[in-house]
Amino acid sequence: MSAKKPEADALIGALLSQMTEFSCLGCPQQALDIRRQLARLQRYPDSEIAPSLKQLGRHLEQEWTQLHFAIADDLSPDTGDQLAVFH
């Protein structure tokens, strides 16, 4: 049995909440989760979410992918002191 997709409005609300939380914590896993949810948004039909909003989601997905990798690079073993900044 496949999981039911949340309503597009609920997903967008959850994304905004996650993005706000990320601004406080800066967790790389959270950045990855946000990117995944932005990708999920692309699978909604145009009847459920405006194409312009899906286009914005695609752009943001690319931005969050870059951010995730930038944070992960900053947390490499050579920079272990930076872990405290993120958690």
Structure description:
The chain is an all-alpha fold and about 90 residues long. It has one domain (about 20-85). Helices cover about 70% and strands about 0% of the residues. The chain has four helices and no strands. Helix 1 packs antiparallel against helix 2 and helix 2 (about 30-40) runs antiparallel to helix 3. The radius of gyration is 15 Å and the shape is elongated. Mean pLDDT is about 80; it is low at about 80-85.
Which structural category fits the helices and strands? Answer: mainly alpha
How many whole angstroms does the radius of gyration measure?
A: 15 Å
Taken together, the total number of domains comes to 1
Principal-axes geometry comes out as elongated
Count up the helices: 4
Largest sheet, in brief, is: none
- Portion of residues in beta strands equals under 5%
Q: Helical content, roughly?
A: 55-70%
Low-confidence segments:
79-87
Succession of helices and strands: HHHH
Distance between the termini: 36 Å
Number of strands: 0
* Average pLDDT over all residues: 82
Which tags fit this structure?
87 residues, disordered C terminus
Spell out the blueprint of helices and strands.
Layout: H1 8-25, H2 28-41, H3 51-74, H4 83-86
Summary, kept brief:
This protein is mostly helical. It has one domain (21-86).
